[in-house]
Design brief:
With 434 residues, the protein is of the alpha+beta class. It contains eight helices and 21 strands. The chain crosses the membrane at residues 55-77.
């Protein structure tokens, strides 16, 4: 029989006997008991009239012996070993505590979120927000849209066309027609009067009536997308000087890639049109260190870089004397307190990989001009810190993360590291082995 079942049955039996003992103790005539004991003829025990004997005293002794026996059994019973950590990735939320492994880097002190950025259209200009909701697919509205070349149905990227950074986005409120009172994504061309507005949160019914669901290609993989009308796309066709289309992510889930794929992470996680992962977090301390290094090169063609060049979603303060310590994150938690709502949100995230960079940061987001060397050359000099997959040929900046649960997030939120690792390998390491 299972030891736990045995113990529970023993305790239940003992408790029932204990109640009977208490009843006998309450009803015992202790004066008569003492009188019986005093007048016992020990030499003639056989002649004692046991019908006059009160058993309360015996029962008290039995209870005492029972307690002693249970204590002995408890000490002789081997301690059962607690089950080890789960291998699957459940949304632990606030239930997952800090864990420092002796062979891992030290856990840094907490820091704070200093900026939140979303990029509604892939490769186009994003904007800062004070607060939003963090979903498992990333920040609300982030990379929900992208442009495709209608000739081959492939996505357009700033990597091949830096002018995409001159396409601005913002959120406005509709003032007329069916859009009145609704939030709109306004898309405009930098330096021109050209602009288009689409529903920021289109319903499935609206999409079915006003767009065409089709297949598009992103990073050599197909996914579905809702394609907007020729009327909306005319502005963009004129800008790109070719036939393009704005598309909105379709209903079929597109799973995260690289270290977030099921083979390495353990579960599948859907997202929208981000390259490989739901969320990128970067450190203000690290961009400061990079700018310091660039300044020391005394290259007059290089101006101080803004964090926007790396297109992260969440920017934390970090420690100026410990830049790049985000490289060692494994599990982190973001805690947001909203007194006005009497609400507290704790969101746990897995930092599953360093972000291997291309030359997009060489593009000035204000002018779309691409520098021939920097910051790529400097990053290649000291930030080739990951030997996994293609990352061995690229520099790294920022961490790619997967949210374990959802909730609101606000600038000023507290970020704490729950666990660290020095075993990150891009597109190679399994998360549960870090």
């Amino acid at each position: 029989m299972d030891i736990n079942v045995l113990m529970m049955n023993s305790i239940r039996t003992f408790a029932e006997g204990g109640r009977a003992v208490l009843e006998d103790i309450r009803s015992a005539d202790y004066h008569a008991l003492w009188h019986s004991i005093r007048h016992m003829d020990i030499k003639n025990v056989k002649n004692i009239d046991w019908s006059d004997f009160n058993y309360g005293f015996v029962l008290i002794g039995t209870v005492f012996i029972g307690f002693i026996t249970m204590a002995i059994v408890a000490n002789l019973t081997p301690t059962l070993e607690a089950p080890g950590p789960r291998k699957d990735n459940w949304a632990l939320g606030a239930g997952s505590e800090a864990k420092h492994n002796e062979d891992a880097p030290p856990i840094p002190p907490p820091t704070e979120v200093v900026s939140l950025r979303i990029y509604p259209i892939k490769s186009c200009r994003g904007f800062e927000i004070d607060s939003t909701r963090l979903r498992k697919t990333g920040l609300t509205l982030d990379r929900n849209w992208m442009f495709i070349d209608k000739a081959d149905r492939k996505f357009l990227t700033i990597r091949s066309d830096p002018s995409m950074t001159l396409i601005d986005t913002t959120i406005i409120e509709g003032t007329e027609g069916e859009q009145k009172g609704q939030q709109l994504l306004e898309i405009s061309i930098h330096g021109t009067d050209s602009r288009v507005s689409v529903l920021a949160f289109p319903s499935k019914q609206w999409l079915e009536l006003n767009t065409t669901l089709g297949t598009v290609e992103i990073w050599e993989a197909d996914t579905d997308a809702y394609e907007y009308s020729a009327e909306i796309n005319k502005v963009f066709c004129d800008y790109f000087h070719k036939d393009v289309a704005l598309v909105y992510k379709g209903p079929t889930a597109r799973m995260v890639a690289v270290n977030g794929r099921k083979e390495l992470y353990g579960t599948e996680t859907p997202h929208h049109f981000a390259d490989v992962m739901s969320l990128q977090i970067a450190s203000e301390a690290s961009i400061k260190d990079l700018n310091r290094r660039l300044k020391n090169k005394s290259d007059g063609t290089v101006t101080p870089l803004t964090i926007e060049r790396f297109r992260p979603n969440i920017i934390v303060r970090g420690r100026d004397d410990h830049p790049w310590e985000e490289d060692t994150w494994k599990r982190i938690r973001i805690t947001t307190t909203l007194p006005a709502e009497e609400a507290l949100y704790k969101i746990d995230l897995d930092a599953v990989a360093r972000c291997a960079r291309c030359q997009v940061p060489n593009v000035n987001p204000d002018t779309a001009e691409k520098h021939a060397k920097e910051p790529w050359d400097e990053l290649m000099r000291f930030r080739r810190v990951d030997t996994g997959g293609v990352a061995k040929y690229k520099p790294c900046f920022g961490m790619l993360c997967i949210p374990k649960n959802e909730g609101k997030i606000k600038v000023g939120a507290r970020l704490e590291v729950l666990e660290t690792t020095d075993k990150h390998l891009y597109n190679t390491a399994k998360f549960d082995e870090l």
